[in-house]
Design brief:
alpha/beta; 12 helices; TIM Barrel; 12 strands
Length: about 350
Amino acid sequence: MRTIQLACVLGGLLVASTARGAEPEKFIRLVEFQVWADWRGPEVPRLLSNIYNETGKSHNFQLPHHLFLWNADRMRGWVDEAVKLGCFNLFNLGDDTRAAEGYLFNDDGLNPVFRDFYLKTVAYAHHRGMMVGVEPRALPRPVTREKIRKWAGTFLDPSLGKARVTDVIKLSIEWLDAYKHNPEIAEETEAFIEGIREVNPEVFVYMDSLTHAWGKPRAYHYWLMARYPKMIISHYLNSEQVPAFRAAGAANMMVQINPQEYVPENGQFFVYHDRTVKMLKDVVNKKVSLLSIAGVNYGYQFYNYDLFLDIVRPHINLVGTVAELRDVVKESHPARHVTKADVRAEEAAARR
């Protein structure tokens, strides 16, 4: 009898709560599932665990290249995981980690060693209904439109067929030497974006920013928002920057969360569930409409991801195509007028 009474009480509370509560606002339009080169085998997390147990930190960058690989069968598995989780519409290959055969990209474009793997992976992700992105590491030097056109033609040329052409380029300012405060970063950004457009105007480019000095709006960000008003600006590892960048006029903020990476306490063989939950709650509270979950193939378990993604599930209303993404991103209105010369001066001063 008590069990029945308790069930009735709980049922009544649930009905009352549902009746009173409004439908959750569905404002999240893009969620990126980003993978890096895979661990070659189970010995890799064991090695990372041993390092962590000894030092309190461990990171894939500490390991030799032969422990990583790009494999088409593995990538199809990761695409399937992204689809199964039901919270993602962009599958992104990040070129942060070098595999035994090198990086996905070199100064000439898509590394020929990985060409077959890469195009098959892009086609499979499209087949499963996802948009496909890449964060390339190596850019041609110097970054000019002409060099970018040749570089981009290796994997973005429409003649490859729509199924095999990448939809989104995630351009990290890290690869434009932002850590060193590159005085030419505005010119190089413009050359990159315009070079990509000349090869394939359908491709969407967004900027991945950094922490440290780049965690607050700089002259570069103001220039970028004016030059490309619908630009998405992503930030790495937390959501703290959102208010400052919105105040600066940024309309399209993306938060990148790495569930298995926590500076300064890195340990890339498990998931920092509590920290991930905290950041996802902040994403929801700040109504951030663009989200990246990165490094998913390190320390991944479907069960853990399925649980913490419950926080964002009620708010998801994902776009299906790049055309739809272009429709939902808004125009930024930078609070300061900044020229390329201003960017050059600020970065040159920071470099000294």
